[in-house]
Amino acid sequence: EVQLVESGGGLVKPGGSLRLSCVASGFTFTNAWMSWVRQAPGKGLEWVGRIKSKSDGGATDYAAPVKGRFTIARDDSANTLYLQMNSLKIEDRALYYCTSRNHWGQGTLVTVSS
Amino acid sequence: QTVVTQEPSLTVSPGGTVTLTCASSTGAVTSDYYADWFQQKPGQAPRALIFSTSNKYSWTPARFSGSLLGGKAALTLSGVQPEDEADYYCLLYYGGVPGGSQGVFGGGTKLTVL
Fold first, then answer.
1. Contact: B104, A47; criterion CB under 8 Å
2. Is the CB of B102 less than 8 angstroms away from the CB of A63?
3. Neighbouring C-beta atoms of residue B87, cutoff 10 Å
4. Which of A44, A52, A106 sits opposite B107 (nearest CB)?
5. Under an 8 A CB cutoff, do A107 and B57 touch?
6. DSSP SS3 for A13
7. pLDDT tens digits, residue range B63-82?
8. What DSSP designation does A91 have?
């Protein structure tokens, strides 16, 4: 059974940092292109960014609102995807999902508030 | 800034047929946009239905189909069931490859079965 389990969400002040993790199981994580998607309360889905598999070069791409502030990384030895979020803004408040395109985690909530 | 547009809401009768569309502000959607479709019910994570325009997953009900229609990506539900009531999101990839340089979600369509 495929599982994606996110963690690391919480309350942080504007300008602060947070690192999200996503542990994958049930599929070959090493071969997967992985993405982060977020959803603000009551709003639609927003693509945050994606990391290719190392065998495909491992490149990352980001949505304009987070480029330069967020970094996606992966540890294939631990089947884990990361999202390092710096310089957080009020508008970054959302439920953050990890996805392999065909499977999604349940999300971890990030709240940015003073 | 690229905008992906979906119908905000649609209503369909049980047993009926409905088509949801997904348009790009950059012009006609082609197979090079590798359109994905997701279903999201209240309080749940999104579930992948269609990938790369028209391909189904093993769990995708047969009544769901994806296509290109009039320069847009389209999701057609034939023989709608009450459990199909949900929000539906399309995701287009800009960059010419699946999971290409940028992913952009549409704003979502709230489908009511009435």
1. yes
2. yes
3. 19
4. A44
5. no
6. coil
7. 999 999 999 999 999 999 99
8. G
**How do the residues of chain A divide into helix, strand and coil, expressed in percent and rounded to 5?**
10, 50, 40
Q: Which residues of chain B have pLDDT under 50?
A: none
The pLDDT score that the predictor gives to residue A53 is 96
Distances from the Cα of B19 to the Cα of A90, B12, B60, B110, angstroms = 36, 10, 16, 12
Q: In what order do the strands lie in the sheet with B4-6?
A: B4-6, B17-24, B72-78, B64-69
Which residue from A52, A64, A104 is facing B46, i.e. has the nearest CB?
A: A104
Q: In this predicted model, what pLDDT tens digit does every residue of A23-44 receive, in sequence order? A: 999 999 999 999 999 999 999 9
pLDDT at B25: 96
| Exposed / middle / buried, residue A36 (Cβ in 10 Å: 0-12, 13-18, 19+) | buried
pLDDT given for residue B99 in this prediction: 56
